Amino acid sequence: MSGHDSLTPAAWLVLNRALLPPSGRALDVACGRGRNSLWLAQQGFETTALDRDPAAVAGLEARARREGLPLMARAVDLEGGAVDLGDARFDVVVVVHYLHRALFPALIAALAPGGVLVYETFTVAQAARGRPTNPAFLLEPGELPRLIAPLEILASREGDFDGRMVSSVVASRGGFRAPLSPRRQ
Question: Is residue 185 part of a domain?
Answer without folding.
Answer: no
